[in-house]
Design goal:
Two copies of one chain form a homodimer.
Chain A: E1 8-11, H1 20-34, H2 41-50, H3 52-60, H4 69-83, H5 93-100, H6 112-122, E2 124-129, H7 133-143, E3 151-152, H8 153-156, H9 163-173, E4 180-184, H10 187-195, E5 199-203, E6 225-227, H11 230-236
Parallel strand pairs in A: 1-2, 1-4, 2-3, 4-5, 5-6
Helix pairs in contact in A: 1-2, 2-4, 6-11
Organism (chains A, B): Falsiroseomonas bella
Pfam families (chains A, B): Hydrolase
Protein name (chains A, B): Haloacid dehalogenase type II
Chain lengths: 241, 241
């Protein structure tokens, strides 16, 4: 694919730009201690995240109207607590809500802000995430992510990997799919984007799932660009330092 | 209204943040010369803008499904050309499209960027404009407007002064209306925002409609903040220089 057509870089966010696992575990640990729930904080983060895809699938398959991720995260949080024998109804609403917003308070990987800052000089940069607008905006404001706009599932009214998530985003930008590149650490996200005509950029995030990660350790197709992090992506795309 | 509740400043854009009349006239002038259309460029800009409210009213009143502003601008441009005896069908598509995107290339007022930069330190800042996402994004990218997100009619799926334009925006941000302030140079926009519980900030733009402007020269209600420009607004809201 001719990369000189690309005008917008659209980023998967959880895992690609921010480190969700350590961020969630950081906020989960004191919550579990306070409420006497016996569980490992990283294991809790993994269990919470594991419910993410099935919850969105209800929407993608049309069994449920579009529902923002904050709502799905909250339902999933209560499910994880119940699995651990804790009754969410006995925990104050404000504490559940605060923990649910841990997804708004994730930290970027060390290369994310310098990399995005370089990429922004040449391209439109925006998240194309399943996160809702408030989540992505609060995350960006806290972390200093220099997005040009907040796009993604809530704007496109469709969750990835539904083709509409990508195509509606291109259409909103007034760009053809080939002028858009999805940047992601996940081969299946890139495959779905390529299928509708997007350019593709793979970024390796070898510890997204912790030190024993077994998935997404290599580029599984000939993606248009492959990079070890977002600074390398800026190098590959010829963005000045 | 208690201003210490305000977390997000939402800005009317055309007229309040950018100078649409001089920007449009600048791009209209060479177009008219090239196509031999005899008309004053500022008069053309006024005529184009005059069709803006009636076009949106079709959507607000439910006679037409939500249609993005780029499309309405294009229809209105062709209408103005026909009124001047020019046949848009005889002008190359690329030239009409380029002129239509003059709305993406408007310049900010001199205080807009330094003012927004200060306000951003304390508040979420975003446009709450009738402009579509691509228009507002391209404008921000070209001019350097430091928005935290691109919001407005296309995200809220409603045009101002429809109450839904304001209420849906607050809901998307996860904020109650009283945590949102509309900042605008137009008393009727502020009145609609106040009606649904928003805080209100009036900014004087005495030459939006040119040197002979007769409207919006004063705050017509006791808006929560009144300022001569966005630097003064930053002063009034206690944002550090």
């Amino acid at each position: 694919m001719a990369l000189d057509q690309v005008q917008a870089l659209l980023f998967d966010t959880f895992g690609t730009v921010v480190d969700w696992r350590n961020g969630i575990a950081r906020d989960v640990a004191p919550f579990l201690a306070k409420h006497g729930v016996k569980a490992d904080a990283h294991g809790f983060a993994d269990a919470w995240r594991k419910r993410y895809r099935p919850a969105m699938k209800e929407v993608i398959d049309g069994r449920r109207p579009f529902t923002r991720l904050d709502v799905l995260h909250r339902e999933n949080l209560e499910g994880v607590l119940r699995d651990l024998g804790a009754d969410p109804a006995r925990i104050p609403e404000a504490e559940l809500d605060h923990l649910n917003r841990a997804w708004h308070r994730l930290d970027p990987w060390p290369d994310s802000i310098p990399g995005l800052t370089r990429l922004k000089k040449k391209y439109i940069i925006a998240p194309l995430s399943n996160g809702n607008i408030a989540l992505l905006l609060n995350m960006a404001k806290r972390a200093g992510l220099p997005w040009d706009a907040i796009l993604g599932a809530e704007v496109a009214r469709a969750y990835k990997r539904d083709p509409k998530a990508y195509l509606n985003t291109a259409e909103i930008l007034g760009l053809p799919p080939e002028a858009c590149m999805l940047v992601a650490a996940h081969n299946d996200d890139l495959a779905a984007a390529r299928k509708v005509g997007f350019a593709t950029g793979f970024v390796l995030r070898a510890t997204e799932h912790g030190p024993a990660q077994t998935t997404n350790l290599t580029a599984e197709e000939d993606w248009d660009v492959v990079a070890g992090n977002l600074m390398e992506l800026a190098d590959r795309l010829g963005c000045p330092a």
